[in-house]
Amino acid sequence: MSRSNQKYELQGINHLALVCSDMRRTIDFYSGVLGMPLVKTIELPGTLGQHFFFDCGGGNTIAFFWLADSPDATPGVAAPKGLPDEGELASAVGSMNHVAFAVPPEKFDEYYERVRSEGIKVSRILNHDDSRAGVAAHVHPGTFVRSFYFQDPDGIVLEFACWTRTFTDADVSHEPRTAADRRVPTAL
């Protein structure tokens, strides 16, 4: 199935901007652990902070703000409290739930072991499919993506993912839910 944007010629994600608490630690993780080259640094005007960009492949970048006045993280609101395979998926409307980096399918298992060997807590491998559970123990013809999750030093949930099949029209089959369908918790 080939679908293209008839309105704008978008060429992917230029960058995703996140907020960190310690830019040095962020560089150590994204460049040191994940191997992403630091490609641009910006000192923001006055004492506002910094904005640094890392090359995450395919002409895409992931960027971080270090802002002097940023409030502390709020797990469970701004991002999930933990990893999806632990049942932690919820984050607030308007939050950034996780960042998924595309990896080559033939290197997926190697990368899983490599991230684990860095001493990082890593989820189990999830073979996402259309079953009731949404994941399978093994790859099968209905598996559409394989992934695993981990967190950066600030608790941002990251995912390494690889598509395992081409989508068809049958892959768009669910009625969209609305705000009226939400189970909103009572006020704090």
Automatic annotation (TrEMBL):
InterPro entries (alphabetical): Glyas_Bleomycin-R_OHBP_Dase, Glyas_Fos-R_dOase_dom, GlyoxalaseI/FosfomycinResist, VOC_core
Pfam families per the UniProt record, alphabetical: Glyoxalase
Record-annotated VOC domain positions: 12-163
Name listed for the protein in its UniProt record: VOC domain-containing protein
Species per Swiss-Prot/TrEMBL record: Nocardia aurantia
